[in-house]
Specification:
Blueprint (H helix, E strand, L loop, with lengths): L2 H5 L3 H24 L6 H30 L2
């Protein structure tokens, strides 16, 4: 998923997406252990997508925090 698309989502939507990807990552770990994983590149892609979403969440939180601090 592109970062620009993710920036348009709310924090709740990003949290839901992270949860979905973590479940997928968990299932892929078991598939890899049992030799059933077909698309090995997807493991790294999911890991990077999770990191990308967490980065955007932290940026949104920092922006909201500085926005509130400036209004006092």
């Amino acid at each position: 998923m592109k970062a620009a698309e993710l920036r348009e989502k709310t924090a709740d939507q990003l949290q839901d997406e992270i949860l979905k990807l973590k479940k997928e990552q968990f299932n892929m770990r078991f598939q890899k252990a049992t030799g059933q994983l077909e698309n090995t590149a997807r493991v790294g892609q999911v890991r990077r997508d999770i990191a990308r979403m967490k980065t955007i969440l932290n940026a949104q939180a920092a922006k909201a925090k500085t926005g509130r601090a400036g209004s006092k």
